[in-house]
Amino acid sequence: MSETSAPLLSVSGVETYYGNIVALRGVDIDVHRGEIVTLIGANGAGKSTLMMTICGNPRARHGQIVYDGTDISAMPTHEIMRLGIAQSPEGRRIFPRMTVMENLQMGAQLVDDKYFDDDVKRVFDLFPRLKERQVQRGGTLSGGEQQMLAIGRALMSRPKLLLLDEPSLGLAPLIVRQIFDIIGDLNKNEGLTVFLVEQNAFHALKLAHRGHVMVNGKITMSGTGAELLKREEVRAAYLEGGKH
Amino acid sequence: MSSNDTQPADVNHPEGAQIKREERLAAPNLPADDPANSYAAAIKDAAIAALLAGVLGFFFLAIRTDIAPGGLEVTTRWALWIISMIVVFGGRLAISLFFRGGKAKGAGNKVVSAVAVPGLGTWLGRILFAFAVILPFFFVYFFPGRDRQFIDLAILIMTYIMLGWGLNIVVGLAGLLDLGYVAFYAVGAYSFALLATHFDFIGFWIALPLAGILAAFWGMILGFPVLRLRGDYLAIVTLAFGEIIRVVLLNWYEFTGGPDGVSGIPKPTLFGLEFTRGEGGFADFFGLEYDSIQRFIFLYYIIFILAIATNLITMRLRKMPIGRAWEALREDEIACRSLGINTTNTKLTAFSTGAMFGGLAGSFFATRQGFISPESFTFLESAIILAIVVLGGLGSQIGVVIASIVMIGGIELLRNLDFLQAIFGSNFDPTQYRMLIFGLAMVLIMVWKPRGLISSRNPSAIYKEKKAIGADMVAQGEGH
């Protein structure tokens, strides 16, 4: 993880608007290969907007997003995803009437069929619960299982960069820990690069190599996960109420 | 559109309960070890089949109407009816004991779907298919007096089944509400009619694919402006599109004949054999006696094959990436895009594939009628086709069949409810009430089965455990 090599994902000076309302005011974030980078912040800070802007929906009005040497700021979403980015979107967005298997199949749309069996096995090894539930409809899964499915579906596309938007949303603490452990393992064992947007600052910063704090569409603090965890401002703003 | 709304309340049941539930789910799919149990199930199954045959066959077998001086004469044939039920019972019992029993042992180690209910739906489908294959001969044999009427009705129902299957791609699979489907039906009908009347060498079989291509093309033309629309907005635009096509057909007098329509549309031929009396006709060639019913039987088989082809292609597409993309599009468009699916192309293919089948059905309609005019392509037609799809259960193929039989056959049946006059007095005209009865029936179905008659959908993918674990599994995690 050398800081000198070009980052896998580089967001520079990105400004995004919803109509006339500013959502992002010049955001700069780099994600290097093999890193877990997290973005924390309160509700409405613009975290998910940044995630969606990287995916091209909405588009950045100013600034540049470069992924693996390619400028993706003006590309349509489906082409961006074909470059090896996978997203587990906010609210999970699994296909509720399709079975677990079919959901996973949808994730593998862009991948050669010959990998399919091995990839499914890999996802089922990571999330044994999904294997038990493979013939069930996505909509009948519990929240935690749906999140596992969303991550599993994203992994089916063999991504180089995994974007995770609030994987802890609405989940029991035990399940949150499980999911974060799995993300950490994926990064450690397979070198998967992860960009993680979270409100659960404690877990996210503990897991991440580097973190950024976003307030009102701007990055206000950056540092390693451990550094940020120690900062008074972070503790006061995001870790009140104790460790989750 | 939240994915949480179907989530069950019991999110975290204890492990033990979960395992029990798994067992319960898997239980019906395990090969029956207990022979007594499987016999009981087979007998029950056969009894249900016999009952079904009894209900279905009641009007055909138990009651027979003959034309007698001064009206119809009803004769009852209870013995035939009961024998037929016994035959069905025995046959079904034999099938489930010998065929299914053998299969279950072989399939025991496979993970089979636990959510779908394969039994009734597939068997109903097979019975209906078998009946559809022999249908014309059935009517010719059992109803010699009214065979023409019944086969004509069967052709009509089959046309709506095909239209329903075509629209099912757009509405049921891709989830794009299309209120103007009849436009493609009209495009298909007019393409064939105009091509055939302007160019002598173009017959039904040449025009059929052309009509399909033209309709698919119009599907794309409609698709482009509405790509960003969904739900209500899409419905209104497609409704307008349907009306535009009809109004253009009505007013472009020089080209389409306006309200006068197009007449003299050629009849289909069987490899150049026409269904006419005398030299060189179908009957003459095969040394049969000429009968006008032969043409109806031929028409029936054309639409039957077209409809079955529609179904087979749809079922095949559903298992292919494009079909799965349609279904995913129905579920969540944003998720689709984030998985790298080009939603623009996906919508366009759904529109044009659905339109193509509508166009094929349209050109069949033109050749069957021999005359078409814009009056046949009103909004009511779109509404009926959509009602068939919705009543059948969005995305369900067999549901469309049942809904077509109920809706189209039901409307025709209501025309013949003369016995009601005995109850309500001789001034009662059932045809005046048929739309009312029809509407009530639709309301009742929606109250009873709000998601359509067949609301379950069969998964298109099933995981089969691979025995050998690849040695390169660990390295593959890199993903590049």
Automatic annotation (TrEMBL), chain A:
Which Gene3D superfamilies does this UniProt record tie to the protein?
A: P-loop containing nucleotide triphosphate hydrolases
Keywords, A to Z? Answer: Amino-acid transport, ATP-binding, Nucleotide-binding, Transport
Biological process (GO) annotations held by this record are:
L-amino acid transport
Tell me which domain of life the UniProt entry assigns to the organism this sequence originates from.
Bacteria
Q: Where is the ABC transporter domain?
A: 9-241
Q: Which GO terms describe its molecular function?
A: ATP binding; ATP hydrolysis activity; branched-chain amino acid transmembrane transporter activity
Is this entry keyworded Transferase?
no
Query: Which family would the database say this protein is a member of?
Result: Belongs to the ABC transporter superfamily.
Protein name in the entry: ABC transporter ATP-binding protein
Species the sequence originates in: Pseudohoeflea suaedae
Automatic annotation (TrEMBL), chain B:
What topology in the membrane does the UniProt record assign? Answer: Multi-pass membrane protein
User: Could you tell me which residue ranges the High-affinity branched-chain amino acid transport system permease LivHM N-terminal domain spans?
Assistant: 42-134
Question: Which keywords are on file for this protein?
Answer: Cell membrane, Membrane, Transmembrane, Transmembrane helix
What is the protein's species of origin?
Pseudohoeflea suaedae
Annotated TM spans: 46-63, 78-99, 111-144, 150-171, 178-196, 202-221, 233-253, 296-314, 383-411, 431-448
Can you name a GO cellular component term?
A: plasma membrane
Q: What is this protein called?
A: High-affinity branched-chain amino acid ABC transporter permease LivM
> Which PANTHER family does UniProt cross-reference here?
HIGH-AFFINITY BRANCHED-CHAIN AMINO ACID TRANSPORT SYSTEM PERMEASE, HIGH-AFFINITY BRANCHED-CHAIN AMINO ACID TRANSPORT SYSTEM PERMEASE PROTEIN LIVM
Q: Name one GO molecular function term.
A: branched-chain amino acid transmembrane transporter activity
From the UniProt record, list the coiled-coil ranges: none
Cellular compartment(s) = Cell membrane
